[in-house]
Amino acid sequence: MYQAGAAIADWGKNVYVKIPITNTKGESALGIARELSQEGRKLNITALLTLDQVRDTANALAGGAPSYVSVFAGRIADTGRDPVPVMKTAAELVHRHPGMELIWASPRELLNVIEADSIDCDIITATQDII
Description:
- The protein is α/β, with parallel strands linked by helices.
- Helices cover 41% and strands 18% of the residues.
- It has six helices and five strands, in the order H-E-H-E-H-E-H-H-E-H-E.
- It has helices at residues 2-9, 30-38, 51-61, 73-78, 83-94, 111-118, and strands at residues 17-20, 43-48, 67-72, 100-105, 123-124.
- Strands 1-2-3-4-5 form a five-stranded parallel sheet.
- The longest helix has 12 residues, at 83-94.
């Protein structure tokens, strides 16, 4: 994953390399993310579902290159939990670090756009239906 991420990052200054929070074996990819970020490579750490993952990611990327932390709020909602409290705390954790932004990923409804805005989320992904 490190080698592919390094190669992809070199494609251009506007490239953010997407790194999943865990690999296919369920092992943390934050060591790789930390190394790439400290080398100046921009990252999008994705598929986060818990505040522990957000906290660990923010700590791993702190002081590195600009980065995105992508929390799958829609998947959190799919479990029957309200994603807003999680995303609000995630925004607070991420915004402690300059150059780090929070993505509300996998929204399920238009209301999520309003919710993301209300908690100071930086970016929300949106399907054509939501747009």
